[in-house]
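Appendix B, Record 12. Input sequence as logged:
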Amino acid sequence: MNLKKWFLIAGGLSVIIIVAVLTAVIYSRHNPSAEQNPSDEPTNADTTEETTPQTTQPPQTSEPETTAPPVSDSAAEPVNTPEPRPLPPDTGVHKSANFGNVLFIGDSRTVGLKDYANLGGADIFAENGLNVFRLFKDPVPVPGRGKVTLDSMLSTKQYDKIYIMLGINEIGYDLDRVIDFYGKALDTLQARQPGATIYIQANLMIQKSRSDRDSIYNNNNMRYLNDHMAAFADGAKRIFVDVNPLFGDGAGNLAPQYAHDDFHLIGSWYTVWADWLYENTCE
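Logged structural output:
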């Protein structure tokens, strides 16, 4: 091969290489790779969705559960609880120990009376979470009897007095429906125990610090219930009694110096409550 022909071949190859390189560059500019741009969205986009908790209760289509609704404000300011007021000297003798042919019905507040006060020979049908919807349905542990229903207790013994306090576990539901069930429960008690005087106890009020920040557990709702329960009293066989002045702060709230929490008394004050009941309903 002569020298002239060799230069022609080399020049042709050079032209082909240059054209190939230019073509590759142009193509890469118009068709970027996946590594260069994985999507049309910005690479720093935040696609996390924030879910807002739903606070609206669904319509009640069945009897309410006894689980209390959650606290509506978990970031409430701390409450300074004053020192409890000193109790009267405890001689070990309490008027409430004279309770005899008596039945107490209630929820955790009445459980407190059972656990911390001397109620003498009274029978106590009470359980944490008990409400008026379950009153004649669920068996409850009764000291000396095991787990029994209220029907069985009313069938085996005629009482002179029946004390009932219910309402705190029902307060998150339709209050007029609660009141309707409460009235029917009183009618049933009266029919089953015609010789008994029924003492309708006003529900203990709630501490102001909780009441002011809670749309459910507040003293407006509690007063509504208590006022309508008082209307069931006739002054003879049904008597309304209200212990709240004994433990109130003077403004319609449970005073913090008596309170174990937002709803319950410190244990030692249940004896004062029991003695008050005896003094005001038995003497």
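Residues 165 and 203 are 6 Å apart (CA to CA).
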